[in-house]
Amino acid sequence: MTETWTTGRLVLLGAGVVLVGVGVVVGLTSVPQGQWPSVLLWLAGGVAVHDAVLAPAAVVLGALVLPRVPVGWRPALRAGALGAAVLAIFAVVIVVASGMRRDPSVVPVPLTTSLVVATAVLVLAVLVGAAVGTARDRPRAPEPVDPDLLPREDAD
To answer: Which residues contact 156 (CB under 8 A, 6 or more apart)?
Structure first.
Protein backbone atom coordinates (compact mmCIF):
# COMPACT_ATOMS: atom_id res chain seq x y z
CA MET A 1 0.00 0.00 0.00
CA THR A 2 1.49 3.31 -1.01
CA GLU A 3 0.27 6.45 0.65
CA THR A 4 1.25 9.90 -0.43
CA TRP A 5 2.23 12.45 2.17
CA THR A 6 0.21 15.60 1.74
CA THR A 7 1.59 18.98 2.66
CA GLY A 8 -0.74 19.15 5.65
CA ARG A 9 0.52 15.84 7.01
CA LEU A 10 4.12 16.88 6.55
CA VAL A 11 3.46 20.15 8.38
CA LEU A 12 1.80 18.28 11.24
CA LEU A 13 4.67 15.80 11.35
CA GLY A 14 7.21 18.62 11.49
CA ALA A 15 5.25 20.45 14.19
CA GLY A 16 5.03 17.24 16.22
CA VAL A 17 8.78 16.62 15.97
CA VAL A 18 9.50 20.20 17.01
CA LEU A 19 7.12 19.98 19.98
CA VAL A 20 8.65 16.68 21.12
CA GLY A 21 12.07 18.32 20.93
CA VAL A 22 10.86 21.29 22.97
CA GLY A 23 9.39 18.91 25.55
CA VAL A 24 12.67 17.01 25.84
CA VAL A 25 14.68 20.22 26.25
CA VAL A 26 12.26 21.65 28.83
CA GLY A 27 12.19 18.34 30.70
CA LEU A 28 15.97 18.01 30.78
CA THR A 29 16.52 21.59 31.89
CA SER A 30 13.68 22.04 34.39
CA VAL A 31 13.27 18.70 36.18
CA PRO A 32 15.58 18.44 39.19
CA GLN A 33 17.78 15.34 39.19
CA GLY A 34 16.17 14.02 42.35
CA GLN A 35 12.79 13.81 40.61
CA TRP A 36 13.95 11.79 37.60
CA PRO A 37 12.97 8.41 39.09
CA SER A 38 9.38 9.58 39.68
CA VAL A 39 9.21 11.17 36.20
CA LEU A 40 10.43 7.97 34.55
CA LEU A 41 7.97 5.94 36.64
CA TRP A 42 5.14 8.27 35.53
CA LEU A 43 6.15 7.90 31.87
CA ALA A 44 6.37 4.11 32.19
CA GLY A 45 2.95 4.12 33.87
CA GLY A 46 1.55 6.06 30.92
CA VAL A 47 2.81 3.42 28.51
CA ALA A 48 1.43 0.63 30.71
CA VAL A 49 -2.00 2.30 30.98
CA HIS A 50 -2.07 2.78 27.22
CA ASP A 51 -1.19 -0.84 26.50
CA ALA A 52 -3.33 -2.40 29.24
CA VAL A 53 -6.42 -0.17 29.16
CA LEU A 54 -6.70 2.29 26.28
CA ALA A 55 -5.64 0.07 23.37
CA PRO A 56 -7.92 -2.86 24.33
CA ALA A 57 -10.82 -0.45 24.94
CA ALA A 58 -10.29 1.02 21.47
CA VAL A 59 -10.30 -2.46 19.93
CA VAL A 60 -13.53 -3.38 21.75
CA LEU A 61 -15.12 -0.08 20.72
CA GLY A 62 -14.13 -0.62 17.10
CA ALA A 63 -15.23 -4.24 16.96
CA LEU A 64 -18.40 -4.25 19.03
CA VAL A 65 -19.87 -0.75 19.24
CA LEU A 66 -19.09 1.11 16.04
CA PRO A 67 -20.63 -1.44 13.63
CA ARG A 68 -23.95 -0.99 15.46
CA VAL A 69 -24.19 2.80 15.06
CA PRO A 70 -24.95 4.83 11.93
CA VAL A 71 -21.97 5.58 9.70
CA GLY A 72 -22.31 9.34 10.23
CA TRP A 73 -21.86 8.93 14.00
CA ARG A 74 -18.69 6.82 13.87
CA PRO A 75 -16.02 9.56 13.53
CA ALA A 76 -17.66 11.59 16.31
CA LEU A 77 -17.83 8.54 18.58
CA ARG A 78 -14.20 7.68 17.91
CA ALA A 79 -13.12 11.22 18.77
CA GLY A 80 -15.42 11.23 21.81
CA ALA A 81 -13.96 7.97 23.10
CA LEU A 82 -10.46 9.37 22.76
CA GLY A 83 -11.55 12.58 24.49
CA ALA A 84 -13.21 10.60 27.28
CA ALA A 85 -10.04 8.57 27.83
CA VAL A 86 -7.92 11.72 28.03
CA LEU A 87 -10.46 13.37 30.32
CA ALA A 88 -10.47 10.31 32.59
CA ILE A 89 -6.68 10.36 32.83
CA PHE A 90 -6.71 14.08 33.66
CA ALA A 91 -9.49 13.54 36.20
CA VAL A 92 -7.48 10.89 38.03
CA VAL A 93 -4.43 13.15 38.14
CA ILE A 94 -6.48 16.15 39.30
CA VAL A 95 -8.30 14.18 42.00
CA VAL A 96 -5.06 12.68 43.34
CA ALA A 97 -3.28 16.03 43.22
CA SER A 98 -6.14 17.81 45.01
CA GLY A 99 -5.55 15.60 48.03
CA MET A 100 -1.89 16.64 48.15
CA ARG A 101 -2.44 20.36 47.60
CA ARG A 102 -1.27 22.46 50.57
CA ASP A 103 -3.17 25.59 49.58
CA PRO A 104 -6.77 24.98 48.44
CA SER A 105 -7.03 28.52 47.07
CA VAL A 106 -4.60 27.68 44.25
CA VAL A 107 -7.45 26.25 42.18
CA PRO A 108 -10.45 28.53 42.73
CA VAL A 109 -13.03 26.37 40.90
CA PRO A 110 -14.44 23.29 42.66
CA LEU A 111 -13.13 20.03 41.24
CA THR A 112 -16.57 18.58 40.49
CA THR A 113 -17.60 21.71 38.59
CA SER A 114 -14.56 21.49 36.36
CA LEU A 115 -15.09 17.80 35.58
CA VAL A 116 -18.82 18.21 34.93
CA VAL A 117 -18.23 21.16 32.58
CA ALA A 118 -15.46 19.29 30.73
CA THR A 119 -17.69 16.22 30.36
CA ALA A 120 -20.59 18.34 29.13
CA VAL A 121 -18.37 20.03 26.54
CA LEU A 122 -17.15 16.63 25.37
CA VAL A 123 -20.69 15.24 25.04
CA LEU A 124 -21.85 18.37 23.22
CA ALA A 125 -18.90 18.12 20.81
CA VAL A 126 -19.73 14.47 20.06
CA LEU A 127 -23.38 15.33 19.41
CA VAL A 128 -22.45 18.22 17.11
CA GLY A 129 -19.96 16.00 15.27
CA ALA A 130 -22.55 13.26 14.90
CA ALA A 131 -25.12 15.77 13.60
CA VAL A 132 -22.64 17.10 11.05
CA GLY A 133 -21.69 13.56 10.01
CA THR A 134 -25.31 12.53 9.66
CA ALA A 135 -26.21 15.65 7.66
CA ARG A 136 -23.28 15.08 5.32
CA ASP A 137 -24.36 11.48 4.65
CA ARG A 138 -28.00 12.42 3.99
CA PRO A 139 -28.94 12.00 0.32
CA ARG A 140 -29.61 15.30 -1.39
CA ALA A 141 -32.38 16.06 -3.85
CA PRO A 142 -31.21 16.06 -7.46
CA GLU A 143 -30.67 19.44 -9.01
CA PRO A 144 -33.18 20.49 -11.66
CA VAL A 145 -32.12 19.63 -15.18
CA ASP A 146 -31.35 22.52 -17.49
CA PRO A 147 -33.95 22.37 -20.32
CA ASP A 148 -31.34 23.47 -22.84
CA LEU A 149 -29.41 20.26 -22.20
CA LEU A 150 -32.36 17.94 -22.89
CA PRO A 151 -32.80 16.44 -26.38
CA ARG A 152 -35.33 18.23 -28.53
CA GLU A 153 -38.18 16.34 -30.13
CA ASP A 154 -37.76 18.08 -33.50
CA ALA A 155 -34.08 17.21 -33.80
CA ASP A 156 -34.49 14.21 -36.15
So the answer is: none
